[in-house]
Amino acid sequence: MRIIRLGTSIRLVQALLAATLVVATAIPASAATTDTLVWDIAAGPQYVDPVMGTTAQANVMVVQNVYERLVWYDGPGTQPIPWLATGWEVKDGGRRYIFKLRKGIKFQDGAELDAAAVKFSFDRAVLLDDPTGIGSFFPTGTAAPGILKGAWEFSKSFGAGKEYSQAAVDRYLAAGAVKVVDPLTVEFNLAQPYGAFLSDIATFMGSIVSPSYVVSHWTKPTDPARGFIPGVTAGQRDDWMLYHASGTGPYTLETFDKATANVVLKANPGYWGGPAGKIKPKLSTVIVRATLDQATRLLNLKSGGVDIADISTAAIFDVIDKKKWLDEGKIEPLVPGVTVPGPYPWLTIYFAKMSVKIKNPDGSVAPFQPFKDARVRRAFASAIDTADIRRNVFNGFAEPITWGLTPAQFGYDPKVKASYAFNLDLARKLLLEAGRDLGFGPDHPRDMVIIYNAAAPWQGYIATQVAANINKLNVGLKLDVKALSFTEYVNSWRSQLTGFSIHSTFSLTADPNSWLSAFGTSAGFWARTSSYDNPKADALYTKQFQALDPKQRARTISEMVQAVNDDVMWVWIGAATAYGQPTFNPNVLRSSVKGFYYNPTYQGFYFPALWKE
Amino acid sequence: MGFLAYVLRRLAFLGLVLVGVSLVVFFLLRGMPGVDPRAAYIAPGLPISPDALSALRKELHLDEPLPVQYAYYVADLLRGDWGYSRTAAQPVLDALLGRLPATVELAVVAVVLSAALGVPAGIVAALRKDRAADVAVRVLSITGISFPVFWLGIILQLVFFYYLGTLGLPSLPSRGRVGDLVALQYPLGAVTGFYVVDSLVRGNLPFLLSALSHLVLPSFTLSLISLAAVVRIMRASMLEVLRQDYILLARSKGLPARVVVLRHALRNAITPVLTTAGTTLGILLGGAVVVETVFSWPGIGRLAAQGILNNDSVLVVGFTLFVATMMVLVNLVVDVLYAVVDPRVRY
């Protein structure tokens, strides 16, 4: 037998290393060419079917480049303009919208865009009935019934008692939500007037898909109890369309690797050019790579291996000068060849909520309800130093807000009065007064718990600050801070087992309807989990919902948010500001990337705007 | 006891272990006090109606007693229904199986690397016992395992990707399984999901070279987890063997030292290392979470990390069950192979 030499294995490893090093140089770096853009994104897309609801903005990033909508946004503008449509008419007091379509636009599979395709796309969204899809986003907000005629009855807002029979499908179709008037005219019939209709169909949910493409990859259901239209099985996810796409957009989805969550987009050679006919993708290939680790993304960006990298605000001082930003408000990149555009108003807010009906674990109502007393709510709100939080937790990338809308949203009104300010003296006075009625005081203190998600240290900072500030007031409330696992945390505030909790939320649209509903109406998501009920706000919500005149709607929104503000149910810690064009994380660019503009309604980049030098 | 009986006994034991694992996993998902199991199925931040919550309660059989819920859970597992992952937008089992080849490829290369580095180092340490080389090997191996893997991974990226690259020297890739442009220009028709194997089968040289270059940093980082163990076991085993009479005999016959060490000592000393390597493979399959995350390696570990970040507990629990099952299976295979390889082992 041949004798193994002692150093053989080491030399083998050395040889392997040398070979791979040589190979590494022989293969071009990813971002080496000017017609290819590489983006290291923190979290890649999960699926790209526009009728599937999502909290993953990377999904929308792909959808907004591959698909198009009847109306969309021109450059940095946040008011929808005609896109696949040439225009629209509103009739019957806002219950009927008639869109004229552009002629000659083709889907990426070669089929022609027509009114039937628009009808198919919206019917598909309703009938497929993703539990977090059209029911929750279209219309935005849950306080309003489904807006397309017959959609609510079919979907029942993803509640119990669903029926996916052919009879149910036929009932929806008979309601005439979307009608083909002629090949280039399509009519939408709404259950009631809806002021945010255009904004809603401008979101990813309003994307127009190629019917022929969908149908060609669809299998008719074998279960006779399951209703369908050709291409759509009622209440059933379309597994093919999760990872494939055919729209009219400037890019085609070349590959979507489920395992890596990487996507490759290719310029659509037959793109029609957009409303002004001037949009022509300059980048032939866009590679979006899911790179979980921030340090890796940063190294790749610094090396020039990628053109764009997601860098969270927690790590932004690796890229920009901390002192200049925090003291002078100037963004000055530290890394040569890197630009950090911004800051821009974004669609994310940070807030704390208080429950007026704290419950015991068995579901019964707890005897001690401090937040039922407006003085306690105002005192807690006054004990939070939001300026300190914005600077030290969000590294200055958040701005003060007086209500839960960001300056990027329609209806944001800087004149809405805040109902509190950081003032510990006032907090002490209010708590001493309230304590006399609620049975606590310096001589007979009561314990309270503030919870936060252990995986979100920023919440911990805020919780600790609140507890420390209240405890040092010596008013008879002894606050303890408790870090919970995510599921415990969610369960605790959803079930109102705790009175005070800290949150963030984001919106996929610049229209405020979803947040107005969530915070201001008794059926809204955040209000419901705080047992908040203000009939005046409910009425104003409905009024703004149905308002078609933007000025009148904006006035109603201001009135509504002031009414809710006066109740001090929410502590608005700040509205996040962005740099780059964020998906979940903001991002920074190599200076060689040109053409960038910011639009808060975009989820990630609109690639046709970009080119490389 | 015969060999077959031994295997059957082990298989029965395997069943018991899996029941135990599934119980632990089930209670992690359902039985934690104060936690509503439905929270795991609802995307945070998305509105959900009270009706939908009631429907979910029924669907998950939460209105039944815990033992009945467990029975449903096991029945689902056996049917291959491990739940649906919001993160992967796939059934959990499909998502895990689809990503398994990437993890296995990485773990196998890591084990090979740790053996290739650890065995010679252990031999040197044993031959130079208590001398400078021995101390150096021991210190280095312990130091290697003492550094957190994520830190070491980043340092390796910094040196071999960033610094070498910025100096214009040949550098290694920082992330992924294959170069993006290579994958586009030389697409690989997947056969097994193991890139090295597939590119060899397809004769796709650019893909093979790119895949190899992408394997270097993550597999080396991962190999460090087991390297110290290999070195220490090899050293101890070698020392033990070197004390045996037949080594003394070989030396007294005047055989060259190299022949004594490699032909007589190594072949007898290496069995414990091989056993360890097998077990280590199981550990690495589950322990690749950090390395896969740092190097964006699309295996089951990175998927689990994404699941954790997305609070997708259905996926995380599925991953736990999957890794535990793999660990048990790998152990079984190693034990059976041990019996086959070493004729002294009797059952």
Explain what the structure shows.
The complex is a heterodimer of chains A (613) and B (347). With 613 residues, chain A is of the alpha+beta class. Chain A contains 20 helices and 23 strands. In chain A, α12 (374-382) runs antiparallel to α14 (424-438), α17 (513-520) runs antiparallel to α19 and α19 packs antiparallel against α20. The model of chain A is unreliable at 1-6 and 140-145 (pLDDT under 50). Chain B has helices at 3-31, 50-59, 66-78, 92-127, 132-146, 149-166, 180-185, 195-202, 205-242, 245-252, 257-269, 271-287, 289-294, 300-309, 313-341; strands at 84-85, 90-91. Chain B has a two-stranded antiparallel ribbon. Chain B is globular. At the A-B interface, α1, β1, β10, β12 and α10 of A face α2, α4, α6, α7 and α9 of B.
**What summary fits the major beta sheet of chain A?**
7 strands, mixed
Helix amount of chain B: over 70%
Strand order of the largest sheet of chain B: 1-2
**pLDDT averaged residue by residue of chain A:** 89
Beta-strand portion of chain A reads: 15-25%
Strand arrangement within the widest β-sheet of chain A reads 10-11-12-1-13-21-14
- How would you sum up the global shape of chain B? globular
First-residue to last-residue Cα separation of chain B: 5 Å
Q: In angstroms, what is the radius of gyration of chain A?
A: 27 Å
Helical fraction of chain A: 25-40%
Radius of gyration of chain B: 24 Å
What is the helix tally of chain A? Answer: 20
Order of helices and strands of chain B: HHHEEHHHHHHHHHHHH
Oligomeric grouping of the chains? heterodimer
Would you count the extended β strands of chain A for me? Answer: 23
Largest sheet of chain B: 2 strands, antiparallel
Mean pLDDT of chain B: 84
The proportion of strand residues of chain B reads: under 5%
Question: Roughly how many Å apart are the termini of chain A?
Answer: 61 Å
Query: How many DSSP helices of chain B?
Result: 15
Number of strands of chain B: 2
